[in-house]
Specification:
73 residues, alpha+beta
């Protein structure tokens, strides 16, 4: 609830499970689908809450020589 009241940008760093729950909450995804939200490594996920929806943008931080994402091990 405290995150919803924030007016300044907030950076959250956490485990994939926690990030899945937060993304599901802010995007209005059903609770049953939360464990299946894709959270790739080496990616920054930007959520911008709006009046009726939450815009999501993903930025891959590591790219290979051919432009594909670098797999994490």
């Amino acid at each position: 609830m405290e995150l919803e009241r924030q007016r300044d940008p907030v950076l959250l760093v956490g485990h994939q499970g926690i990030i899945r729950i937060l993304i599901s909450y802010f995007t209005g995804l059903e609770r049953e689908r939360a464990p299946f939200v894709s959270i790739p490594s080496n990616t920054v996920i930007k959520l911008v809450p709006g009046t009726y929806k939450c815009d999501e943008t993903r930025y891959c931080l590591l790219k290979g020589d051919n432009g594909d994402e670098v797999p994490s091990y």
